[in-house]
Every structure is written in structure tokens, then in C-alpha cells.
Design a protein that fits this description.
By secondary structure, this protein is α/β, with parallel strands linked by helices. It contains 5 helices and 12 strands. Strand 3 and strand 4 form a beta hairpin. It is globular and about 50 Å long.
């Protein structure tokens, strides 16, 4: 059996990209296989509807380079959010970068056009393709924030072999929002018998309450609404036992398209 040590860093990003880059070295610890920071950590969204295109970078730009340097120095793999230049100069991608022992970029598929926001006015949706990496023998599927409300993506990642779903987020605070967040993170774990590691930005603008949830929906670690660091160890034996206890993936019966 194998295990994956995870650190979740619930920390707010600021409006100064250089300042956020400089904080990476202090925030990313040694001793974990996987370190997860929130969505848009390279630079916060700013006021709703703000133009974030001046802060978009290439994946190997200043933020990506520093993320890779810190990951190598700490001998870990780090996931963190940034704005990435796209083919639309005024609408970059909302991207998760993975640097370290694994390397990838996931462009957020589902843009947050909900609860009075219009993320698609400022950002471009990513390609309709699942992104997974392997870290310490675990298959890790990538999602971002609003993606949690779309179970199809989580199931597609699990069908591609994900043992863990990682969901960096900037979950905007408001009525019912913590309840929705906790419910959706646990639902994605339970219905897919998979670990979910959800790193949120803290309050007051965002909800906080970063979570690590096991494949039967038990909360292994949860933050409050302020800056906080969570640590957890994920174990393949727990994953396998959960899938024996609740073999819902094996029991699926898909309706015929003819019906």
C-alpha cells in the first residue's frame, strides 16, 4: 500500500503579483508529496468584473518559474492558480499550474457565471479535456472552484483513473456558500469514492473552509475562515476499502441513448 502526504495552504492572494511570488518560498513547506494553494494565487481577481488580462503570464513566466524553483527546492509537487495568456488578449485562462515532481497546466472549464458574477466576461474557458498527473503513485485529477458544481467532470477524471481530486478555489462568501462548498466537496468524494483536496482562499471575501475529504465522505481536515495550513495523509488501502464498501463505480448502469 502507498500513501500521499498532502499540505493545503489556505492563504489569500493579493493584487501585487510580485508580492505573491515572493511569498511562495515561505508558504510552501518541505516534507509533503503534494502542496495545494488556492485558485488565482498569482494575483487575486480584484473587484468583480475587473480586467485581469494585464496580469496574465505564460506558464513558464515569472510565477511559473518561481513555483517550479520552490517545488524543486522543497522536493515536492505544488499546485497553484494563475491567469494565463490565451488567444484572446483581453480574456486569459484561469489556470492551475502543477510544478515539481509532476508538471501540468489545467485551464478552468466552467467559468463562474453564477450568483451575479460573469467570469466569462473577463476570462476564456479552457479546452474540454481532463487533466491528470501522477504524484507519489497517486493519480491526481485537477478541477477549479466552480467546476465542483459539475459532477460530470469529476466522474470523467475518476473514469480516467483519478484517486484524488484537487480543487483549488476562491469560493466567494455569501448566504449558503459555506454549506454549498462543504456539501459539494463531500458529494464529489462520496459519489466517486475518491479523495478530494479542496484549497480555498480565506475570508472575508472568500469562504475559507479548505477541506480534505476521504472516499467515504469523512472530513480528514477542515480549516476555519482565516489563513490556515492543513495536513493529511491519503492512503491507497482506505481508497480500496471504500470501493469495496461502496462499489458504486462498478455498479453503474448507464441508460441507453435510445430511451
Amino acid at each position: 500500500m502507498s500513501s500521499l502526504s498532502v499540505t493545503v495552504v489556505q492563504e489569500a492572494s493579493g493584487l501585487d503579483p510580485a508580492g505573491n511570488r515572493e511569498r511562495l518560498a515561505a508558504l510552501v513547506p518541505a516534507g509533503s508529496d503534494l502542496v495545494v494553494l488556492p485558485e488565482a494565487f498569482a494575483r487575486d481577481f480584484g473587484q468583480a468584473g475587473s480586467d485581469v488580462s494585464p496580469y496574465a503570464e505564460a506558464p513558464d513566466g515569472p510565477f511559473g518559474a518561481e513555483l517550479a524553483r520552490v517545488a524543486a527546492e522543497r522536493d515536492t509537487t505544488v499546485v497553484a492558480g494563475m491567469f494565463e495568456r490565451s488567444e484572446h488578449p483581453t480574456r486569459p485562462y484561469n489556470t492551475l499550474l502543477v510544478r515539481g515532481a509532476a508538471r501540468a497546466a489545467y485551464r478552468k472549464i466552467h467559468l463562474y457565471d453564477s450568483f451575479g458574477y460573469r467570469e466569462s466576461d473577463a476570462l476564456s474557458a479552457g479546452p474540454l479535456a481532463p487533466v491528470l498527473v501522477t504524484v507519489a503513485g497517486f493519480r491526481v485529477g485537477l478541477m477549479t472552484c466552480y467546476d465542483l458544481r459539475f459532477p460530470e467532470l469529476a466522474r470523467l477524471l475518476v473514469d480516467r483513473g483519478a484517486d484524488v481530486l484537487v480543487a483549488p478555489s476562491a469560493w466567494v462568501a455569501g448566504e449558503r456558500k459555506v454549506d454549498h462548498w462543504r456539501t459539494l466537496v463531500r458529494a464529489r468524494a462520496i459519489e466517486n469514492t475518491v479523495y478530494v483536496v479542496a484549497a480555498a482562499q480565506p475570508g472575508p471575501r472568500y469562504t475559507g473552509h479548505s477541506l480534505v475529504v476521504d472516499p467515504l465522505g469523512d472530513v480528514l481536515a477542515e480549516a476555519g475562515d482565516g489563513p490556515e495550513v492543513l495536513r493529511a495523509t491519503l492512503d491507497t488501502s482506505v481508497l480500496e476499502q471504500a470501493r469495496r464498501t461502496n462499489p458504486s463505480l462498478a455498479n453503474r448502469r448507464l441508460p441507453s441513448t435510445a430511451l
